[in-house]
Write a structure and sequence with these properties.
This protein is of the alpha/beta class. Strand 6 and strand 7 form a beta hairpin. Helix 1 packs parallel to helix 4 and helix 4 packs antiparallel against helix 5. The radius of gyration is 26 Å and the shape is elongated. It starts with 9 loop residues before the first strand and ends in a 9-residue tail after the last helix.
């Protein structure tokens, strides 16, 4: 497999302005996605209409205008700002002698470039195959022109000449492998729950600085790059709160407008980790001119994942940059924190906000468990956070943080002094 020569990765960007969002912002993001995939963009064309043409995405007049732009700039590919239907793919491929890429295929390609874990590679391949299955004829012509590279790379690449049965068999196989990985994750999750582990999960728009925050707080050593989707694989690290309590902090893949449903479906098992988080740390790039739009996209995505009831702490990151004030409120958040992962300003505020939620409903207890009650001693080790433990004449003394359930179980062992 080989990539196109760098100088050949030249594209025109094409979009439809349906009035539902700012087309300039959306096209700027498409250009940034293209750059992340190693594609140089030279021009863009947009059309105002209620919805893309079912047959050709653009109307007839705009197609003629696009043809003129192609003649003028001689691009190797056209990148469309929406997911194209199989019919649109076929019509556009028949008319234009360029590689046709849509937003979904571009994002899938970026994920294929960035996936490093075994699970991530399987998830990306599954999303690619599901996407391609209904587009074999249109993509086949595109790939014959391309020969590899943008839109075709990725782990376990399946050539589009392969018949549908082979692709379906591969999808079934990938599904099976991912279910097995999901079972292993479920086992680890249950172990964490049994141990009473508190989990905070970083969520946010891509490139908002989630990995930088994880690195700042937990010295995680996660790759940080100023580009979209630099982090794809979930990373979990232990973090000490200001009061000495220990929690787990996880970094997740960033969200983006028009996130491909194939990708959401393939990454569903990973995203399920958010279901079991005790608090979501919603990271917003405060210096981004589109921060309000990005915030809305993330909130809608969380709602679609049925995470709207989760406790939320909003972090306005990158405050060291020029930030337009005032920052907008977030009514669903328990706390709003201003910080900079680069300078470290506001880190203690974030830890304090997490600790406040961590401690809500929990009580500090002093208890004495007689030596004869070893099962209760095991219960304390499994369900409480132990701050102090010592062996006394009458039994084992513990200073613990306990939730309501544990507090009730240990009511008969409480002591005021030893």
């Amino acid at each position: 497999m080989h990539d196109l020569k760098k100088e050949e990765n030249v594209a025109l960007l094409v979009g439809v302005d349906d009035g539902r969002s700012d087309i300039d912002i959306s096209m700027d993001e498409l250009e940034e996605l293209a750059q992340t995939a190693g594609i140089k963009t030279m021009a863009r064309l947009t059309q105002k209409r209620e919805a893309p043409s079912a047959a050709t995405y653009l109307g007839k007049g705009k197609l003629d205008e696009l043809e003129d732009l192609i003649w003028q700039h001689e691009p190797t590919m056209l990148i469309f700002n929406d997911e194209l239907t199989p019919a649109q793919f076929r019509k556009l491929n028949d008319r234009f002698d360029c590689v046709i890429i849509d937003r979904t295929l571009l994002i899938l390609d970026i994920f294929a470039m960035g996936a490093s874990s075994a699970e991530g590679k399987l998830q990306v391949e599954l999303a690619q195959l599901r996407y391609r299955l209904s587009r074999l004829s249109g993509l086949g012509k595109m790939l014959s022109r391309l020969g590899g590279g943008i839109g075709t790379r990725g782990p376990g690449e399946t050539k589009l000449e392969t018949d549908r049965r082979h692709i379906r068999n591969r999808i079934t196989n990938l599904d099976s492998q991912l279910k097995e990985i999901s079972k292993n994750r479920d086992t680890m999750r249950k172990k964490r729950e049994k141990q009473g582990a508190f989990v905070a999960a970083l969520v946010g728009y891509t490139n908002a600085g989630k990995s930088s925050i994880l690195n700042r707080i937990a010295q995680a050593g996660v790759l940080v790059e100023d580009k979209l989707f630099a982090t794809l694989d979930t990373t979990v690290r232990r973090v000490d709160l200001l009061g000495g309590s220990e929690i787990l902090l996880s970094d997740t893949v960033g969200f983006i407008e028009k996130l491909p449903h194939h990708l959401v479906r393939a990454f569903r098992a990973t995203l399920e980790e958010l279901d079991y988080a005790d608090v979501l740390i919603f990271v917003v790039d405060a210096a981004n001119v589109n921060r309000d739009k990005h915030r809305d996209v993330v909130m809608k995505t969380l709602d679609s994942l049925k995470l709207n009831e989760k406790q939320l702490v909003t972090v306005y990151n990158k405050m060291d940059k020029g930030v337009e004030m005032p920052l907008p409120p977030c009514t669903r958040s328990k706390k709003i924190v201003e910080m900079s992962a680069v300078t470290g300003a506001g880190v203690d505020d974030l830890l304090a906000a997490i600790e406040e939620i961590y401690n809500s409903g929990k009580t500090r207890l002093s208890i004495l468990i007689p030596y004869a009650e070893s099962k209760m001693t095991s219960y304390v080790h499994e369900h409480c956070e132990i701050l102090e433990e010592s062996h006394e004449e009458a039994g084992t003394f513990f200073e613990v943080i306990a939730d309501e359930e544990a507090r009730n179980r240990l009511a008969g062992y409480k002591v005021t002094m030893v």
